[in-house]
Amino acid sequence: MNSSLRLVTAEPGLSRYASLAQALRARVVAGEWPPGSALPAESQLASEHGVALGTMRRALELLVEQGYIERIHGKGTFVRQGLTGATMLRFFRFDSGTGEVPVSRILQRSRVSAPAAVSRTLGIGAGEPVLRLHRLRLMGGQPRLFEELWLPLDLFAPLAEDDLTEWDDLLYPMFARRVQVHVHRALDDIGFAQLSATQARHLGLPAGHPCAQVQRSAFDRTGRCVEVRTTRGDAHAFHYTVTIT
Amino acid sequence: MNSSLRLVTAEPGLSRYASLAQALRARVVAGEWPPGSALPAESQLASEHGVALGTMRRALELLVEQGYIERIHGKGTFVRQGLTGATMLRFFRFDSGTGEVPVSRILQRSRVSAPAAVSRTLGIGAGEPVLRLHRLRLMGGQPRLFEELWLPLDLFAPLAEDDLTEWDDLLYPMFARRVQVHVHRALDDIGFAQLSATQARHLGLPAGHPCAQVQRSAFDRTGRCVEVRTTRGDAHAFHYTVTIT
DNA sequence: AAGTGGTCTAGACCACTCT
DNA sequence: GAGTGGTCTAGACCACTTG
């Protein structure tokens, strides 16, 4: 129980609380405190680093802003779990707007070597093995979204040959549970296109039908890209709201 | 020079800094410090209200988050000007992607009584008079965006019959300068649709061509809706990026 | 040099959660 | 009641901007 001081060497041009935040973030990312677990109390962290309480609070506030931790009054400070999921629905409005989670059906799963564009986004070597999925999402029995996913095999190998009935409707909680991949941030690029014959068939729409197209890159806490996905759905069901300030 | 104390009665269930922020926001909204002007120094505000410096700083931080003021190290605290403009371009990518401001051409201006949907969004009585505009925006000589705008006449009367050559390419700075309407927040709802024959003609595209459609409501500092606008452009030029955390 | 906001300290006290 | 985070104080000192 040696309570040795952890002094943070002041980075040039960085305030002390910013340096502290950097150091703490590194320990979170390294897994010293796993997702969902509690950090030491702010008072303990402060004395451990030889700074005033207010300074440590500023550092922790930064990590909250950056999405690494969350604080609960009276309980403690916790490492955030990954994103919960169902987020694609934020872009589409189908008639049954009851907030229900779409049912997911895996149409195809194969081990392939990554196409150039995919390996570049995933940040892996050209032609490295990836898991490719075709996935249909249904609401009220109707097929609504068609997805293509690419997952780097080194992280997702256990999911390459299991029973497909073990796949959940929501992927991110499943990724966390079964392969310890926690999606921390996602970047969605929205565009417009027309459905290919194959895509259209799966969605029960005519080929060439206008579709909204969401290209997602998802990242874990270390900043590594762990998923590339393209989602397509009827353009007429698309809507999204942005607030500008 | 009476330095009387301005005590803020603590609202039940509100922290002192939150109450202070509320009180200061009311004075900003009321125009006690006009847009672009400086607030008193934080030290003066603190002693004026009989609170510690740190408490006043927390209050001012809140107003920064909410977009009412901005602080510049070494200079002071200033009431924010309205949004600058050119923001529609965030949704489209045309070949000449040089960040140039699109040239604006007013095609039509008329005084009409507000349609039901418009008067509802503007929060004015049914059939109240509004200024309706059709506006084309061009980049590199090519027509790219077609806009319909509705402005409540009580605020924009001076713009109802002036020389149209006095209209700028960017509306919001002009609104601030000529009718003292400062747009503080805007809400954009994105969807996909097809161009009507008239819309298509203005954009040099075939009728029924797919288009991205942005429906904007713009608000001033008091929270009043001061503009309703629909912007349409070629769906293939549309793109938008969202980060999820 | 004077005035501004930004950082940091070392406390006290309050509000919430759990047992 | 013990432990947590949230608020508030009354200072000191630093960094930036302007005359």
Q: Might you state the CATH topology name of the largest domain in chain A? A: Chorismate lyase
Helix/strand structural class of chain A: alpha+beta
Order of helix and strand elements from N to C terminus of chain A = HHHEEEHEEHHEHEEE
The greatest interface between two protein chains, and residues involved on each side, is:
A-B, 24 and 25 residues
| Biggest sheet overview of chain A | 6 strands, antiparallel
Give the second-level CATH assignment, the architecture of the largest domain in chain A. 3-Layer(aba) Sandwich
Distance between the termini of chain A: 50 Å
- Estimate nothing, just give the exact number of structural domains of chain A: 2
Strand content of chain A: 25-35%
Low-confidence stretches of chain A: none
